[in-house]
Amino acid sequence: MRQTNYCMPLPTFIKAQDYMMETTTNEIFEQHEIQEVRIVAGITADDVETFLNMAAASGLFSSDAMMTAEDMAWDSAYGDGNESHSFLKAVINDSGSEKAIAFICFGPIPYWPGNYEMYAIVVEPQFQRLGIGTALVSEMFRQTTVETGNRVYLETGTEKKFENARRFYEANDFIQQNRYIKQFTPNDGGVVYCYDITSDTIGEQPQ
Question: Is pTM, for the whole model, over 0.85?
Answer without folding.
Answer: no
